[in-house]
Structures are given as structure tokens and as C-alpha cells.
Amino acid sequence: MTFPQALVALTVPALDPFxxxxxxxxxxxxxxxxxxxxxxxxESLHFxxxxxxxGAAGFFDLRLMGFMKGVSLRSAKKFIPWAMVGxxxxxxxxxxxxxxxxxxxxxxLSMWMKxxxxxxxxxxxxxxxxxxxxxxxxxxxxADTPLSAKVIGAVSLISWFAVLYFGRMLPYLDPNPxxxx
Amino acid sequence: xxxKLLAGLAVASxxxxxxxxxxxxxxxxxxxxxxxxxxxxxxxxxxVNWVNPHVNFLLDVTEPDGKVTTWTLVHAGPxxxxxxxxxxxxxxxxxxxxxxxLALARNGSPRGYVFTIKxxxxxxxxxxxxxxxxxxxxxxxxxGLGNGHPTTFQN
Lengths: 181, 155
Known about the structure:
- By secondary structure, chain A is mostly helical.
- Chain A contains 7 helices and no strands.
- Chain B contains 4 helices and 7 strands, in the order ααβββααββββ.
- Chain B has a 5-stranded mixed β-barrel with strand order 1-2-3-5-4.
């Protein structure tokens, strides 16, 4: 038995009641059967959201890593609210996908990799806010960033692209595809 | 400058109109499936997954050596198929034998992007407008989705 197969054998039966529970919600049934336009609209919004998120947060990450020194960290951070808008849009649309078709995600290895990197990105951002933000934002334009800032920027950038990658790979990296109803 | 821009636009629009109609219109279909590698298979319909983001049909195909392989035939989302007048209940019956032309998956798995489906009543459901001649079940390039024509059914 390969590792993915073993993981499937372990996780799939355990998650089936959870999938059934989500599928029993009337709102999921409404998403699936009553509002046919909802999924394609959410897909488009999810893409716009990820552009906002990675575009805005990615710029700040690059500045943390020491690129584009002409822009002060304080100015670069002014884009971050747009990243938060993107994240909110994607959380909402992502929940709609999950509630509509939980069986496509709950037992999907790619989904859990996506969640793992979401957590890493989140913890990394929290670490920045709580321990590094004040000191780094006081740096003037043209100042290089310390190694800690470069690491935080790189972890953030890599994590968000990993979130994007595993999201796109949802249909392809699933050892036990179950798209069916 | 303006004239150059206009000339460029004119060339671009001519190219856009004259470009061959792409059969695999949706996002990464051309990356996953090879539309130059089209085959026809027959099998027993096992399941219709009328789900987002892509409707798929499971077809049990018996190979010459007796081995049964379940093929996954992928197409557009349910909304698009519904708009073309199709429904999972009215056109597809589990346990009946269907024939389909499909662009094979590039990774060699038993998957394909379905072009045309022939029902047990010998009705043809043209799902995709391919280049004329590239679909063995639709040599004339009839109807189909993606070019503004309704899906056509023909005996």
C-alpha cells in the first residue's frame, strides 16, 4: 500500500459522516440545485480574490525580502487591506464550494495541503504583526531589511503560492477522486 | 501612432475571427486533454456526476481481454449543459450502453474530454463544436456548445 492509499484508507471512512452532515444542510442543496449561476460566479470571484491577495501581500513580502527598497515598508504595507479584501472574498466563495460539494474536498489530500499552507501563512503573518511589525515599519525607505524580515517575507510568499498551487491541483492530486454525488 | 494602433487592432480582430474554433474552450482542458488524440469508446453507463465544476460520466468499458475499465468522460459545468437543453435525468440512463468520442487524457489515465455521445436510441448529442473531421462521431462539425449553436440531437 502506498502512502496516499494508506492515508485514504485511514481518513475516508472517518470523514464520511462529516461529508454526509454537510450535505444534509438545506443551504448546500440550494447552492447545488437552485442557483446554477452561483458556482461559476464564485469561481470568477475566487480568481479575482487570489489576484488581490497575492498581488498585494506578495508586494509587501518582496519588500520584506529587501526588493524595491525605494518604497518604505510603511508605504508597501498600505496595500495589505486589499489583500484582506481578497482573502475575505476567497474565504466566502471557498466556503460556498465546500458546502456545495464537500465530497470533492473533505477527503482530498490537495485540500489539506492547501489548509496546511493557509495555516503557515496565517501564523507567519501573526508572528510578523506581534513581534516584528513595529520595528520593521520604522525603517526608512532605502533601508535594507534584517534577515528575520527576509525569512518572514519568503515564508509568506512561498506559502501563498503553495495555497494557490494546491487549490489549482485539487482535481489532479487526489488519490481518491470522488466528484460524484 | 494612432494609425499603427488601429492597424494592429484590425489585424488582431481578423485573427480572432479566423482562428480555428477551439474545441476545448474551458480553462485548462487543452493542458489535461489532447484534442489531436480523439478515440471512440462504447460502454455501460455506470454513473452521471451532474456536479460543479465539471459534469462527468462514468462508463464501464469492456476491453477485448474481458477486463472492465471505468472511464471518466468530462465535460462543462452543469449550468452550461442545462442551458444547452440537457439534463442528467432526461438523456442518460444508468445501465444502458453509450458510445462516445473523446479527447484522451495526456497522462494516459482512462479519462477523456467528451465531444459527442451516441445514446442507446442512436441519438447523437453534439457537445462540442470541433474542427470539421476531427471528431469521428461528428465529421461535419455539427452543432455543439461554445459557438452559440444549441446542442443538436439527431438520429
